Amino acid sequence: MQIKVKDVNINYVRYGKEGGKSIVYLHGWGQNIEMMKPLADPFRDEFDILIIDLPGHGMSDEPKYAWTCYDYVDCLKEILTSLKIDKPILVGHSFGGKLSLLFASKYPVEKLVLFGSPFKKEVEKLSLKVKILKEMKKVPGVNKLEGFAKKHMGSTDYRNASVVMREILVGTVNLDITSEVKKIKCPTLIVWGTLDEAVPLARAYELEKLIPDAGVVTYEGCTHYAYLERLDQTINILWNFL
Fold it and tell me: Secondary structure of the chain in the HEC alphabet?
């Protein structure tokens, strides 16, 4: 199904128990609805399920300009209003988790579930490629190649993105929402892999301190996709939390 928001066609699926409490699933960057379905399907008999292809992902259109995370949150709010979903349970992974945090800081949310969700810029150890890129800026006549270098030497997410989506990704990665996170009041479950290299485990415990009613569950030996690596465990934890 599709809905048009901000002149963007957005793809979504909605199924499950009509009239049940709504669970809204938001995937990570570069992902789509299919990444969240394994976590949604087990709840279809008891809950109203909504999974969205975030704009620029899956079968949804790209935004016409470089949206900020706040634009995505406004878009989500408009979608939920149109579909008559009030005070949802939000489940977000990575980028979807960051949007869930922002949404919960602005609007009523029943409960919040986060998987590897960033909320501020990560200080990365410089790889050789990044060091080379930084050095290029200092060389007269070569700095004009910076755009090309970023396209071919940046992260996989960055390389695979269009110009607009690259701008969105950069803005998303650099946005610190710590002050917004402090406003969240709903019960929050934070699930993290101990080997997450995209967003370090320390961020999970920081979120736990920032949100009054929050708890952390760690998956030993799991990565940024911990929720899928131990899907059965994740489903059991969610049943208990919900």
Answer: CEEEECCEEEEEEEEECCCCCEEEEECCCCCCHHHCHHHHHHHCCCCEEEEECCCCCCCCCCCCCCCCHHHHHHHHHHHHHHCCCCCCEEEEECHHHHHHHHHHHHCCCCEEEEECCCCCCCCCCCCHHHHHHHHHCCCCCCHHHHHHHHHHHCCHHHHHCCHHHHHHHHHHHHCCCHHHHCCCCCCEEEEEECCCCCCCCHHHHHHHHHCCCEEEEEECCCCCCHHHHCHHHHHHHHHHHC
Cβ–Cβ < 8 Å for 168, 157: no
> Domain locations in the chain?
2-120+176-241, 123-174
C-alpha triplet 120, 32, 190: angle, nearest 5°: 40
Contact status, residue 58 vs residue 33, Cβ threshold 8 Å: yes
**Amino acid identity at 219:** Y
pTM of the model: 0.87
Q: How far is CA 88 from CA 48, 72, 80, 83, in A?
A: 10, 16, 9, 12
- Tokens coding 80: 């939920």
Mean pLDDT by 10 residues, the chain (242 residues): 94 97 96 94 98 96 96 98 97 97 98 97 57 49 47 60 90 96 98 93 98 98 93 97 95
- CATH second-level architecture of 2-120+176-241? 3-Layer(aba) Sandwich (3.40)
Look at residues 4, 150, 148, 173 and name the one whose alpha carbon lies nearest to residue 94.
173
